[in-house]
Amino acid sequence: MLCARIRNPLREPSCDIVTAALPCEHHPGVTEKSPAVRSSHEGNVSETALEARHLYKVFGKHPNQAVRRLKAGEGRADVLDAGTAAVIDAGFTVRRGEIFVIMGLSGSGKSTIIRMLNGLLAPTEGEVIIQGRSITGASPAELRAIRRESVSMVFQHFALLPHRTVIDNAAYALEIQGAAKAERLSAAREILEKVGLGDWADSYPDELSGGMRQRVGLARALTAGTDILLMDEAFSALDPLIRREMQEQLIELQQELGRTIIFITHDLNEAMFLGDRIAVMRDGRIVQSGTPEDILTDPANDYVAQFVQDVDRARVLTASAVMEPPHLTTPLSAGVRGALRTLREQQTSAVFAVENRRLVGAVTDRAVIRAVKAGTTELRSIVDDSVLTVGPDDLLTDIVERAVETPIPLAVIDENRRLVGVIPRVTLLAALGNVPATTREMPIVQTPIDLVAEFTPLVDAAAGAPGGASAPAGGTPGEGGAR
Ligand SMILES: Nc1ncnc2c1ncn2[C@@H]1O[C@H](COP(=O)(O)OP(=O)(O)OP(=O)(O)O)[C@@H](O)[C@H]1O
Q1: Domain limits of the chain?
Q2: How many other CB atoms are found less than 10 A from the CB of residue 6?
Q3: Atom of ligand 1 nearest to the CA of 87
Q4: Is the CB of 111 under 6 A from ligand 1?
Q5: CB-CB contact of 386 with 289 (8 Å)
């Protein structure tokens, strides 16, 4: 299985990209991880493939009036008399080479957004910018050119031409672009190989299964050679197993071909698995955008939190998202006695041995005691170097098995074998079960009755103190008394 973190080179860039939680430029109330801030040595290369700025779409009699009222603070339901607000002030930036997912329940406005992104629908207000060019106000001919050259679409119901062979379907977009037959067939054949349909080139769509037909749809969009692919619920009609296969294949293809993909889905698990970043929509608005881990671990509001409750966390969270700092370590240079001291102080039965922060292995209490008895002082000879390790980018789903096998926490090591964290089994279980792994201070239970306040007036009254026996009738115990 591919790792969600490392599959996109743009997501884990090799040079100084600063990522910080910032308010989204277009939505001060919506937070997203900041767009990559590139170091100056990369030059001013635009990494933005597509941008949506303050998009509104209202269907109905008075769309502009509805937008004015929405801006003034009225809600979607309030402006129904003027029209249906399908999209309200949606803004996002899609970076080149990423999979950006727009996720929301039926009616939340996803399809309307995607139709505005490829110019099939004009926004009531706002702007769509594709590769630096605004398509708002573009002529029909310009829009056709943009769709031909920059943006391809993959539909839920494949939209294949039934009387054409698989290869002719896959080559169709190039045919429209006017490419010579030999050129388009060769390009289509290459892509068909990549999607696993090389042997089916001469078949017809009705000879294929649903998953295979969707592969042809995907091949057609990829053959077109556009940088941006819009995929509208592209896998929703497929059986669950085929669907998962397609999701995995899409990530592989995206990694290989580096296209920019905007993927629409109502399925949060799919969004979490595919998305480098996700925009969550509700009632026409984007309510949160961020990486899958951001959304899972820090939902912006109760709506998103409820949504993520049922997410298959093992497919989204990585080792680095759940690991704990490695406290139970002993340097090799501390020798057997040093290891013994750490084991006793930490009251544990095994510690990790490290050398220059690099993991050497684990040392158990038994081995240490035997070594002390035998008069051994050097630690390396008793280190067990077969400890199970995982990488920071490994998905939990891929490490659960190893966690079950090992009696000590899993060691998380980076590419230089540096011990960057540990995952005790309890931490893994807590993360999978969405239980907070942190512990809090125990609250101090308040004494139910303030005995001093209760009894002082009675004692005072018995002693004849002023204000005691003469306390007003109905006064609460303690009122007017000493505290
Ligand atoms: N042409 C139209 N005329 C009037 N209302 C529309 C039109 N298209 C969409 N809507 C309304 O806009 C809202 C958003 O619809 P949209 O299809 O964009 O949502 P969606 O999230 O894609 O839902 P689904 O997954 O069901 O397609 C809905 O209330 C829908 O009824």
Answers
A1: 95-311, 321-432, 444-483
A2: 15
A3: 14
A4: yes
A5: no
Give the C-alpha separation, 160 to 261, whole Å.
20
Q: In whole angstroms, what is the distance from residue 219 CA to residue 217 CA? A: 5
List alpha helices for 195-334, DSSP H.
210-223, 240-257, 268-274, 292-297, 302-308, 319-322
| Residue 304: other Cβ atoms inside 10 A | 19
Question: Which sign does the torsion angle of CA 142, 145, 150, 152 carry?
Answer: positive
CA-108 nearest atom, ligand 1: 21
- Between the CA of 148 and the centroid of ligand 1 the distance, in Å, is 25
Distances (CA, A) of 99 to 146, 230, 253, 277: 20, 10, 11, 7
The response to whether residue 59 sits with its C-beta less than 6 Å from ligand 1 reads yes
Task: Assign domain 95-311 one CATH number from 2.30.29.30, 1.20.1090.10, 3.40.50.300, 2.40.50.140.
Answer: 3.40.50.300
**ipTM given for this complex:** 0.97
Written as one letter, the residue type at 264 is: I
At the top level of CATH, the class of 321-432 is alpha beta
Cβ of 120 below 6 Å from ligand 1: no
Digit-coded pLDDT (tens) for 3-51 = 333 343 333 332 222 222 223 333 333 333 333 222 222 333 358 999 9
